[in-house]
Every structure is written in C-alpha cells, then in structure tokens.
Sequence to fold (399 residues):
Amino acid sequence: MIVPSTFAATRRDGLTRLAEFLPHAGSAYASGRNMDHGPDHPGAVSRLSPYVRHRLVTERDIVAGVMARHHSDAAEKFLQEVFWRTYWKGWLEMRPAVWSRFVEERDRQRDTFGDTAALTAAENGTTGIDGFDDWARELVETGYLHNHARMWFASIWIFTLRLPWALGADFFLRHLVDADAASNTLSWRWVAGLQTVGKTYLATADNITRFTNGRFKPKGLAKEAIALTEPAIEAAAPLPELLPYDAETPALLLITHEDLNPETVFPTSCALKAATLLADPDLLWGDAARRFAKAAATDTASRVASQYKCKADILEKLDVDALAAAARAARVKTIVTATAPVGPVADALARLGPALAEQGLHLRQVRRAWDSQFWPFANKGYFAFKERLPAILANGRLP
Ligand SMILES: Cc1cc2nc3c(=O)[nH]c(=O)nc-3n(C[C@H](O)[C@H](O)[C@H](O)COP(=O)(O)OP(=O)(O)OC[C@H]3O[C@@H](n4cnc5c(N)ncnc54)[C@H](O)[C@@H]3O)c2cc1C
Fold:
C-alpha cells in the first residue's frame, strides 16, 4: 500500500505549503522539477495543485510570494509552470467547444470501446508495463501524480496501449485531487498531438529510467507517436461579457468549489448579506476531489462568515428553490458569484440564471482581475502568452 499524499483542505494549510516551498522555487525547482522520486518523496515540486485548482490558494498568492523572495529570472521556470495553468484556463474559456467535444468523445468511447479487458488492465495497473502499472495504482491510491509521470502515463496509454485518449483523460479526472477541466483535457490533447497539431509526446524507456532515478525500466514502449487527428477547432472567441454587478446592491454571495477565495474577488465594502457555499459532489468527477472540496468548503464557510460578518451555509445539492429561499431569508434579490471557468459548475450556473430569474432573482458573475488580465492573451500559443508576462510582472502590480 502506497502512503497517501495528504492535502489538508484549508487555506491556511495551502499557504503553509506555499511558504515552505518558496525558498526552493528558484534553481532547486529548475534543476529538480523533472525528477519523479515516487509518492513518498515529493522532490522539487510544490504539490500545490489541489489548492490552486480550487483557488484555495490563488495564482496571484503564488506569484506574489515568489516575486517577494526571488528575482523573476531566478524563478522563471516555476513561474512559467504556474502560468501554464492560467494559460490553459484562458485557452479553454475562449474555446468552450473543445470541452464539449471531449465530453462527447468520452461518452461515445464509454459506450462503444470494445476492449474492456485492456481498459481494465490499464486502470488497475496490471498491464505488465513497469512504471505505468505503478502510476495507475499511485493515482488511484493517492489522487496525485508528478507532472512527468502524467506525461509518461498519457503517452503510454495512447501510443503503446492504443487506448482512446478521452478514456485516459476521464480516468485522470475520476482520480486526481486536482482534476481540472482545462489542465487535464488540454494536457492529454497535447500528448496526443491534437493540441499543438501534429506535435506529440513520446515516452521513452531511457527518459523514464533517468527521471525516476532507475526505479522503473519499462520494456516494449511504442517507438513512435503518430499524432491523432480531429476536425479543425474554431478560432478563439472573446471572453463572454458579464452582466454588470453593483457592489452596493445587497446580495447573497454564492461560492462554488471553482473559486474558494471570494475574499480576493469581493472586497468587504460589498453589500453581502449572507453566503451560500455550493458543495455539490455531482459537480466533481471523483471521490478524492470530492473529499478535498467538501473539507475546503467547511474551511471557506468559516473564513467567509468572519470576513463578511455574515451567515455562511453549505448547500450540498444545487437546488434552485433552496438558493432562492436563502436569498429571500437574506432579503436580497441579487445573487453574486465569482465566475466559474468552463466545466460542470459553469454549465450549472448557466442553467441556474434563468431558473432564478423566474423567481425574480438576478444571478451576477464577477471575473477575477487575474483572469480578466491574463486569459485574453491565451488566444494563441503559450510562447506568445508568456512573452507578455515580463512587462506585467516588472511593474510589480499584480492584478
Ligand atoms: C496528462 C496530464 C494531465 C494533467 N492534469 C491536470 C489536472 O487535472 N489538474 C492540474 O492542476 N494539473 C494537471 N496537469 C498539470 C501538472 O501535471 C500538475 O498541475 C502538476 O503536476 C501539479 O503538481 P505540483 O503542484 O507539484 O506542480 P508544480 O510543478 O509545483 O507547479 C506549481 C503549480 O503550477 C501549475 N502547473 C504546473 N505544471 C503545470 C502544467 N503542466 N499544466 C498546468 N498547470 C501546471 C499547477 O497549478 C501547480 O500546482 C496535467 C498534466 C498532464 C501531463
């Protein structure tokens, strides 16, 4: 049995993890980040992803912490990785059809893929491929894999085992604590040669042996990785316009697991009369993420109650009537929430708006300054995106 990685789901724990990692965000990260020493040895990476994924700790918290401690050149590698997340989120936000396409492909493959024995062997870690089987079990038992292991695993899944990429992405979503619509889908697409069209990632035995310090020596891996193909995807659309929200309008604050840091979206000057935390397990894919999000919701409810001096309740099922009742109890007609990026929560909010309107209530979404600033730059490749960063970081005023 592998010792599970533990991710205590409070903002304080996330910030402690960040503070402990910050001294190592420079050259130690740059030189050591590709080594995967296994689940019991975190190595050079931060393991902050479950916190960042739910915004219990924000990208801004991390970047501000890094810049207070390191010159941006010294921590360039780490900053770039953090901005990969921002980039993927913005990229998908401007191309939501890529998420719908993944969901359709996953459902189609679930219904039609015939080789269930091969699929089961891959998910149970009984293929006989050294490393791959260990990562499958590590993922299920701990909810986390090192980035390099994720790349090797996805590559072997697609090019050696020739399993459908969408079922592999689904396997990750069902087990990762940091399971994320954008980072996961787009990374799998990248390995498969769909994201950067024609460019694939091939896992090799030498590379695996070297970066696992000899722990694994897989045999029989694919010698080539021929890119998968698909119909062309549409060009990026601008970020959706949001309906205006007036901070002086009395409102109920709705918090979802997509953004568990409303304190940095809504200043205390906002007329927030009460808060409801939506902790609906059906809006996540797997139990590890559900456990994390549930505990994080409790932490967030108590932070929010003291920050806004208001009542903060947890709603375990998205129920229009229960939300409307909470708004009426708070004597408000407006419900305000931080925007949810592409994924199940965004879909739920899209259904919720009209249903609340029928009850005379207005749902308003507010986009984080970070997202408004950076997401529009994700309209092309990552190289063009990261070119913009030095000028923004140099002025020292993070959004
Ligand atoms: C096939 C595949 C699937 C993935 N699925 C997810 C997922 O569902 N959720 C998820 O958060 N990340 C995903 N990643 C990205 C990356 O593997 C994880 O974010 C990273 O391993 C988390 O560990 P860490 O916090 O120690 O990272 P660190 O190296 O310490 O990086 C710090 C932070 O930067 C961000 N980050 C780092 N690398 C990446 C990257 N390549 N892409 C996007 N963001 C990054 C994360 O928020 C991370 O917490 C996936 C990568 C691959 C190859």
About this structure: The mean pLDDT is 95. The first strand starts at residue 251 and ends at 256. The chain has three domains: 11-93+374-394, 100-211, 251-366.
